[in-house]
């Protein structure tokens, strides 16, 4: 849930600053990453990077244990880095996003007792009353 919220916040920020919202790789159905031993990465890096350029994630293994994951860049992060370099967003946006993610993980889920309106329903009803 935090990842979806994080992506939504990131895309909202990019929209407000006038940038296009790039299509995210995470919106596609995720296929299992290919596992590649370190030796193959060293000797056949062109093939491995070709997989990454095609949008695939690759797990790098050493003695059968995953030691790294290589994947395509997150276009939202690239855009935010460019905006930070231009002074349009805070340079510490990654740290702020990490703190927000950590905070969202600690907030307990709220639920209404049966028969009570949900938060969304209350907001919509309040908005309709004040039209």
TrEMBL record:
Show the segment(s) annotated as Disordered. 104-131
Annotated protein name in UniProt: Antitoxin
User: Please, which domain of life does this record's source organism belong to?
Assistant: Bacteria
């Amino acid at each position: 849930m935090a990842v979806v919220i994080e992506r939504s916040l990131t895309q909202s920020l990019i929209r407000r600053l006038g940038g296009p919202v790039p299509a995210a790789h995470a919106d596609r159905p995720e296929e299992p990453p290919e596992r590649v031993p370190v030796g193959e990465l060293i000797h056949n890096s062109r093939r491995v990077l070709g997989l990454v350029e095609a949008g695939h994630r690759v797990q790098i293994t050493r003695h059968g244990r995953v030691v790294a994951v290589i994947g395509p860049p997150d276009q939202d992060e690239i855009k935010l880095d460019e905006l930070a370099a231009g002074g349009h967003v805070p340079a510490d946006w990654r740290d702020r996003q990490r703190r927000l993610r950590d905070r969202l993980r600690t907030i307990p889920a709220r639920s209404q007792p049966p028969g009570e309106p949900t938060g969304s329903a209350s907001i919509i009803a309040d908005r309709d009353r004040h039209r």
